[in-house]
Amino acid sequence: MPRQVDHADRRRRIADAVCELADERGLEGVTLRDVAARAEVSMGAVQRCFRTKEEMLVFALAHIGERIGARVRARLVRSPAQSAGTALGHAATEVALLREEHRAEARVWLAFVAQAAVSEVLARTVQANYAALQESFARLIEEACADTAGACADTGGATRAGADTGGAAPLDPRREARALLALADGLTTHVLIGHLTPREAGDVLHTHLARLLSQ
Predict the structure, then answer these.
(1) Are 133 and 92 in contact (CB under 8 A)?
(2) Is residue 37 a contact partner of residue 13, using CB atoms and an 8 Å limit?
(3) Span 22-39, average pLDDT
(4) Between 173-192 and 84-96, two packed helices, what is the crossing angle to 10 degrees?
């Protein structure tokens, strides 16, 4: 009796192979033949899973984005003792990929982002990942404002009911979420090229968060 093929598992194995090769050689060094060899499947199996190399790359990009997103979601499962501000700090740290065990993942993610600059289909996947993370950040910033009785703006720019701004402009959670995501993403690059150490990058990130949450 022929063995049942788990196509979902095979696609994940192929995506992992793409990421390993991209880490070693960059995306330009990823070929269907090498992916098949690394995933220990035939060329035909790769082509049955993905019609084109671009389709394979899009799936691999979504795969690594989901891994990062899953870690962020895990950090957002808050205990009663964990504030929204603490959860925001954990989530931003995960997105910045500062820890040594995430260095290969950071290299692969940036390789995909660079390729997305010239590939509309990859760009759409990156944009979707960023949009989901930005939404999570905005929600936590709004919750943190409520926790500290700070002044927040709603999506229309109006001040949250009951907040006393003292004449200062209200904090806009969506705008601040965009800034925080851009900062975390930029710190990934600075650490990878050696401009900042992970500790220095962490200090930059947490200083920004402290200022943000004290407004």
Answers:
(1) no
(2) no
(3) 92
(4) 40
Token duo for residue 142: 């709004």
For residues 174, 213, 186, 114, the Cα torsion angle rounded to the nearest 10 degrees is -30
Please tell me whether residue 152 adopts helix, strand or coil conformation.
strand
- Specify the amino acid at residue 102: H
Residues 6+ apart with CB under 8 A from 38: 17, 20, 21
Helices assigned H by DSSP within 98-197? 103-116, 120-148, 173-192
Per-residue model confidence as pLDDT tens digits over 109-152: 999 999 999 999 999 999 999 999 999 999 999 998 887 665 56
User: Could you give the 3-state DSSP secondary structure of residue 159?
Assistant: strand
Residue listed under structure tokens 């990929």: 97
Mean pLDDT for all residues in the chain: 87
